[in-house]
Amino acid sequence: MTAGMWVRSALTYRASFAMMLLGNLAVTTLDFVIVALMFQHTDHLGGWAMPEVAFLYATSSLAIGIADLLVGSIEGLGRRVRLGTFDTMLVRPAPVLAQMAADRFALRRLGRPLQACAVLVWSLTAVDVHWTWDRVLLVPVMLVCGAVIFAALFVAGAAFQFWAADAAEVQNSFTYGGATMLQYPPTIFARELVTGVVFGVPLAFVNWLPALHVLDRPDPLGLPEAFHFASPLAAALAATVAWLAWRAGVRAYRGTGS
Amino acid sequence: MPPTTPTAPADPDEPAQDGHPPPGLPARHPPAGAGAAWGLYGSVARGSFRRYATYRAATLAGLFTNTVFGFILAYTFAALWQARPGLGGYDTSQAVTYIWVSQGLLVTVAVWGGGFQDDVQTRIRDGDIVVDLYRPVDFQLWWLASDLGRAAFHLLARGIVPLAVGALAFHLRMPVSASTWVAFLLSVALAVVVSFGIRYLVSLAGFWLLDSEGLRTVALLLGMFFSGMLLPIALFPGALGEVARIMPWSAMIQIPGDVFLERRTGGDLAAAFGFQAAWALVLLAAGRAVQGLATRKVVVQGG
């Protein structure tokens, strides 16, 4: 209902809304234009061809796009904490997490998933892959798990704002920074960085690890085969940690009294 | 109420919605002479510098984000230049340096928009702008001074550390000549004025659009792409590259970046300054003209 309210409010200024949706679509298309421009100058990036990088780009972008659409509004938490308007959410008879997710629900965020879908369709037709049933199945699984992992990062990042209300931007390093990193092949990054997003922040499970199986690429870390299929487990773990962090945050929250 | 963060959010489609009223203009009488006027704008700039210096947590968080993005982009650039050494006339260490310099400048020249823009837009929406326009200080110069103060803080706070971290982790191409640092600072100052000119026009469009967020998104898009923030303009193909080179946005990242890398020296350096200064003047003049139109519009409405 809250989400519906924000949608109606956005549609009030139609010209501005159309421009925002188009602008959002264009902003997200922009990073793919950059990838395309890079491939104007080379056939391979880190040993991966353009359709393969496009596959990484699309799966990363679609996963964060869905997560952003569903729970992205939660990053406004710091502002609500500072202004003291978070208190009103606590007394309403609805789950706080759901209220925060629907707060300032922005339909214009459809831009990113729409554009990512287009790139995904193109990359699937362009990659040179022998499609077995497990590869076909892994694509939707990685998209769902990827969205859950990014959603967990949004929630955990927001929970962090209960303690550091001013530091909302740290969250962007992990969400948008992570999504940018996942758009490129793992082979171009330092080993420590890749290891960090496998065992630390579980970003590698969004698309890198399953993509290695789908695209039949060698694993730069030489991890066991099982990791390529472990995204659901990683997503479940990430969601649990985020939920615990959120609960701890809400419990630790004290109104500013303003 | 604790202070709110003034920095533009990294989510490009989510404009900062500060909940506090912007500082606005002082209700003081016109200063006596030109000297006093410059003193006033100097103190505006200093005040703005101090205002942004208050947000320590936000600054640290932004610094962290710039550094993380610096790493990610530096690796992708290193991979691209490994595949094509010397691409665009940059060697690999120059290309990686370009990334770290552009991360340091991102917030300084406000490629995403923001800074005074948030304040002006809030005041237009709330109607407070009517009072501002009739105050005895120059509206445009006031906000320019405030934006220069903000930029100076961001250059110090969010420029030096990412560059130092980048230099530790990668082989960077630092300026050989000491005078390059002076030229770089001058180029950054001109870049901020050009950026101000663009953001000022976008903000004033709020007089006609009621809600200028859409236009702001478009401005952000053009800025990110044509400034050379995401990819040096030398890598743009054909006509797109030609167009990008003469647009005002290239004055914001591409030119200061090339000055830092000492790709612009002697006559080329003078031409670069001339290009930046010309766009700065054109944009400031356009801003003044639009401001005049906006003022008259306010009168017509009886505001």
TrEMBL record, chain B:
Keywords: Membrane, Transmembrane, Transmembrane helix. The keyword Electron transport does not apply. The lineage of its organism: Bacteria, Bacillati, Actinomycetota, Actinomycetes, Kitasatosporales. It comes from Allostreptomyces psammosilenae. InterPro entries: ABC-2_transporter-like. The chain crosses the membrane at residues 60-83, 95-115, 184-210, 217-240. It comes from the Bacteria. It holds the Pfam family ABC2_membrane_6. Residues 1-29 are annotated as: Disordered. This is ABC-2 type transport system permease protein. Residues 20-29 have a biased composition (Pro residues). The keyword DNA-binding does not apply.
